[in-house]
Amino acid sequence: MSFVHTKKMTAGDYVNYSLLGIIALFSLFPFFYVLSISFTDPSSYVPFKFYIFPDKWSLYSYRYILSTNSFINSFNSTVFVTVVGTVLNVLFTFTMAYGLTKKKIPGRNLFLGVVIVTLFFNAGVIPNYLVVKNVGLLNSYWSLIWPSLTNAWSLVVVKSFMDSIHPELEEAAKIDGCSDLAVFWRIVVPLSLPAIAAFTLFFAVGHWNTYFSALIYISDTKKWTLQLLIKQLVIEGDASGVAQTLDNDAAPPVETIRMASIVLAMLPILIVYPFLQKYFAKGVMLGSIKG
């Protein structure tokens, strides 16, 4: 018979856990406030009142903002940039990282050096803007996708991940008649699924939260991303951009519109993240094969 010995809680442990619980509770207060205001009925909303729970629950603010053209356009823009950008990010990052693992490729060290240099030096905002302008991508969704097809940090991490794949597997596949491309798709990609899932999450969150690039490259309000629209609502306090579908008399208070838009902007990532959480941990911690 085996006995499990558990450590007895000390007074210091109770104090530490209590402090951590209090800090966590205070950290959650802003989220409770945002949710509470977004679900508050416009008729019972009182400005500058702190709400933990709505006095009267209502989905009117959500129905209102989901009926506006501006929010729908910005949501569709963000979804397009996120989906297309994430797919291209994963494709370019993993194919280039796989190429950098091959020591026999001519110029491999040069390309690897160029990648590493960009970890320390950046061209800057103005050169990037001029490049995007000169290739005709201004006011285009592609201005948010092409300039960031991959990045040095992702390439280095993915390359290190792929270096852990035993070369004997690739050699065996080539003996069976596989080409380099077939080896990549049939051997490397399946073994890299945890890393692919983790970086899919990284890239998707990055594109979904695109703000600065959209701010300098997109001037057409019909192509705004969600983050630009929320900035217009929250920071500048201008709700006129979303009041295009319903009459102003039917519009809820600006504060409830702000909070509802923030919740709707966070919701897709909050829904997707739990499904990729286990792969996120595997992609960071595990190699493909344990020797």
UniProtKB/TrEMBL annotation:
The keyword Ribonucleoprotein does not apply. It comes from the Bacteria. The chain crosses the membrane at residues 14-35, 79-98, 110-132, 144-162, 183-205, 257-276. It is found in: Cell membrane. Keywords: Cell membrane, Membrane, Transmembrane, Transmembrane helix, Transport. The keyword Transmembrane helix applies. Residues 75-275 form the ABC transmembrane type-1 domain. GO terms for cellular component: plasma membrane. Belongs to the binding-protein-dependent transport system permease family. PANTHER family: ABC TRANSPORTER PERMEASE PROTEIN MG189-RELATED-RELATED (PTHR43744), POLYGALACTURONAN_RHAMNOGALACTURONAN TRANSPORT SYSTEM PERMEASE PROTEIN YTCP (PTHR43744:SF9). This is Carbohydrate ABC transporter permease. It comes from Paenibacillus thalictri.
